[in-house]
Batch of 2 targets.
Target 1
Amino acid sequence: MIDFGDFYRLIAKSPLSHWLDTLPPQLSAWQKNSLHGKFKQWFNAVEFMPDVMPDTLDLLNGVTADSTELSEGQKRGIETHLRHLMPWRKGPFDLYGTHINTEWRSDWKWDRVLPHISPLAGRTILDVGCGSGYHLWRMVGAGAHLAVGIDPMQLFLCQFEAVRKLLGGDQRAHVLPLGIEQLPELQAFDTVFSMGVLYHRRSPLDHLYQLKNQLVSEGELVLETLVVDGDAQQVLVPGDRYAQMRNVYFIPSAAALVNWLEKCGFVDIRIVDVCLTTTEEQRRTDWMISESLAEFLDPTDNSKTIEGYPAPMRAIIVAKKP
């Protein structure tokens, strides 16, 4: 079982201490009642991973660790355990000679985000829908005091814990198997990230309020999501699927998204980046072998999805809580 005790001790003397009123029983109930059928198999891969203290560690330019102490056999064993945790969607990671070539080039997204946000040094950060935790490690590399990720997908939690073990047990980042709706109004984070989540929410304004309720006064929201071209009234409501994804409810224009943020009480709202998602940024690899973006686009017209909607375009918007 995953032991969250280190995290509890870490936040006990911090502005997050009141979270301890609800979090331990919540995670205890999750461990008893909600484990995925493959969780034991995934967690075994974490347990069998060697405890390593890297000689070289770089979280500023990527997520890279290596050690001269490991034999080639040990390095092959690490790759075997990491492959038991496929598919890997967010990354990449370079760990002791193993390059995890993930579906998403999340480093490209990070390079688009970082120049436009408040410096992360010393900040307490929440990343909603963090996946494997790739961006948490980049936040730590940028100087974050504490980076907390939430994501209900249990495979992602095991991926994160495996990487953490290979990074020497670093306690500056943590992942909790929760959705944003399970968090109380903590009002304790200096920066909150929501990247690739908003379009999966049935009520996008409720999601924006939930994000706002996690921020301190004058805290910063970093929102990255699908958008469409159009004016402030333009919102796409897809049918059963969008680019083969289920549970895509609302895709606004960037201007409409600014309106939504204003309606929720955010200020200093800036659209800092808008770009089309390419098949170089999201693609099938030998670490994620099922279909990816190339199969989700119209083969005769890459400006459209196979359902006929505009191809994926993503915006980054930065805003402040008053």
Target 2
Amino acid sequence: MRDSRPQSLDTLFEDEAAVGKSPLQIIQQHAIALLKLNRAILSLLPAQLHPWCRVANYRKHILVLEAGNANWMTRLRYEVPVLLSTLRSEILPSLSSIDIRINPSLMVKRSNNAQDFARSSTTAPNNDNQNLPKRQLSHESAETLMVLAEHSPEKLKRKLERLAALAGEGTSTAKKKR
């Protein structure tokens, strides 16, 4: 069971000579080991899996991998037998199993990067606002903002009035006027 009681920050920064290794040094070494392990595993996996999976942790002889969604997790499961035997023979002889978990934030982050890469490689560099749909503030919403501004503190009132003034204009054009 974990020790979840509050600890003094002094215990995290104790010097190495007094204690052997401080908790921060242990965490740093574990993070470096995971980064190296991640590079090794990505070199063993097919290139199409690289953006959608990564090493999450290695503890108690179990390697935990993350996949962006269930599709990539299934594809990664096909690679587990080969990955397990290769890792046991070359890098981690004590490895007992590989656990795969879904991490949706990995998918979101990577898909945004993939879209940016695809956009930049297929088109000439231009203003990103041209690709976004135009959004407009309705006159009814502007009236509601003005009523709200009447009962707001001065600083908020100015901002709400500026926002209400955008009614009928596309927000991308409003950004250019500033």
